[in-house]
Amino acid sequence: METDIDGGTVTLVAELAGIAVFAASGASAAVGKRLDLFGVVVIGALCALGGGALRDVLIDAKPLALTDWRYPLVAVVASLVVFRFHPALSRIRPTMLVLDAAGLALFTVVGTLKGLDYGFAVYAACIVGVLSGIGGGILRDMLVQEIPAVLREDFYAMAAAVGSVIVAVGARWESQIGHWTLMLIAIATIFVVRLVAIRYRWEAPKPNF
Question: What confidence score (pLDDT) does residue 91 get?
């Protein structure tokens, strides 16, 4: 059954949720490195807003982080929450991995939809979606001096690519399956594939030394 919530509202909610979880992921990584409050908030915010800014540059739009106060506000608040309650997060690393998987899923799906809305071809919208999804994680890993996950974990960008294709192809039947349903299917696919890949250590062949 279709709801009276339009696609723009759905996308906004998904994007703000993605900002919150990516900010929490970045802040968790900063807490793990024992940074101070300022460092935790900066890394959390950059992680949360970086992917969206990259997406907006690719589609030639004004970065929403600079035009809508809700985006940086959500990023800062989520980072502060992690800083305040991090003692309750007894296992920072697993928590960060789950948050990162959620952020990857949300930003990839929203990025792909934005690419389609701006008239990009299917393959181009998928590229925008994947880069939007992995951008925040790359910034986070670089700032905390880690090798970016996308360069060492094969099913990071690949999980994003699978979900992006689902969105881009499924958009043709969006009127039949519904905007929410399409988004949830793609988000769940990316999230599950990413976590299963982590659990079972899926990876492509690497050079032997």
Answer: 59
